[in-house]
Amino acid sequence: NDQHATKRKLDKSVQDHLYFDSYADVSIHEEMIADSVRTDAYRLGIARNGAAIRGKAVLDVGAGTGVLSVFCAQAGARKVYAVEASSIAEQAAQIVRLNAVADRVEVIRGRLEDVELPEPVDVIVSEWMGYALLHESMLNSVLVARDRWLRPGGLMLPSRAELFVAPVSDLVLEERLRFWGSVKERYGVDMSCMTDFARRCIMNRDIAVSAVAVEDVLSHPARFAELDLHAVTEQELQNVRGTFRCDCFGSASVSALCVWFAVSFPGGGGGGGGDKPLVLSTSPFKAETHWKQAVLYLDEPVEVEQDTRVEGEIRMFPSEESARHLCIHVECAVGGLRQQSKTFSIPDGYPDVQ
Questions:
Q1: Which residues does 238 contact at the CB level (< 8 Å), separation at least 6?
Q2: Which residue range or ranges hold the Methyltransferase domain (predicted)?
């Protein structure tokens, strides 16, 4: 049994190594910084909370290129501890020097879990979100940081996360399924029996990460879960769940459920509209981000009309193979019929993202 535990430990360190290694490459950082919805939300979210940051100690968990740490220094932080496990930390240190904040921003290369800080901090900032919020997410590390280093009454940026779902139609999918029926007309060979096979191949158990067009969303979004980052525990992340109920806009074919998230930064007080939280949303109704949306295909498309109800339960939990990998279990009924039950995961080899 000890041997088994050691193997699990080894596996975990290999997983960690692969994960942190993927952040050493330039393209992932280019994609994140170029995502102006993401980067501007953090820039404004940090600036808005200047009163809580000025003269205080800040911890940036998974600092990457250090952009958030520089934002915090620009907002008047006395000291920023920028913790980064991958070799991008070397570039972060250069960026910090280039921006003349090296006296206040200290880049620490290492896993958050292994790092010692000389003092508790007043603010924790982190861009920890993965696909569908929790895939390859650093949230566990952020919670360890919170429990270990954040002063009582300290601030988490962002402070809240919400998960949403809506039924969607996929016209490209429908075209691909119709294709096999058209082969006979084109080439004189009937291949219509391929339609079922094609449907099983495409409408599989993979979480598809893609940008959903707003016209393909068939109802108002339903919020099915919310995380208060000041209070949520690692234990609760083992099972994030909630129910949803959506009423369809009109006649269409529901081929999938689409899941996305939003995180919010407190308003920071000071009146003048500054009290309203600042929201970074990955909704298909908003400008596209590098997270896009997570698409979960039903087993087969279901026709709906105005006010057809799509309802069910969604449960998100880490895969048994890798704690960083997300599984999503869906129980869903369309128009009160045909309960569908399906567990999805992101296919291996999919590029990690934060």
A1: 317, 318
A2: 58-154
